[in-house]
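User: Let's play a game. I give you a shape written as tokens, and you guess the letters that built it. Ready? Here's round one.
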């Protein structure tokens, strides 16, 4: 269903949707997810910056580690490169950690879309 052969891929009736952020926006628009994807431009920017950050930055070193370590036979692994990807991943996820330390959530504090558990 997905020309890239990847997940996630969602089928909603006749519509096939791929790319996780597109799926998220579609589900929010189609099924009343305004709390997760606000219409207010400023509030929406808080959500979308993390979506874009995940897509453009956070995922890359983890995907490289998945391919270079778990999907590469031990004898063929390029450990200096893997160590660089690991350091890159840690540095990026520390940004998320700092956001969580400061606000408890990545975006809910700005949009009011915190889950019940987060509010307690
Ligand atoms: N940018 C795409 C990335 C999709 C992607 O990389 N999916 C991975 C899993 S997270 C996948 O299907 N991998 C198949 C495989 O590695 O065999 C999205 O956000 O949906």
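Assistant: Ready! My guess for every position:
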């Amino acid at each position: 269903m997905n020309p890239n052969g990847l997940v996630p891929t969602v089928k909603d009736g006749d519509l096939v949707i791929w790319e996780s952020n597109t799926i998220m926006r579609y589900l929010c628009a189609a099924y009343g997810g305004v709390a997760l994807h606000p219409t207010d431009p400023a509030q929406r920017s808080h959500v979308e910056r993390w979506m874009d950050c995940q897509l453009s930055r956070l995922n890359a070193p983890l995907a490289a580690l998945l391919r270079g370590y778990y999907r590469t036979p031990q004898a063929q692994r390029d450990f200096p490169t893997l160590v660089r990807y690991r350091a890159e991943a840690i540095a990026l996820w520390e940004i998320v950690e700092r956001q969580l330390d400061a606000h408890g959530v990545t975006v809910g504090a700005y949009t009011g879309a915190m889950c019940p558990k987060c509010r307690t």
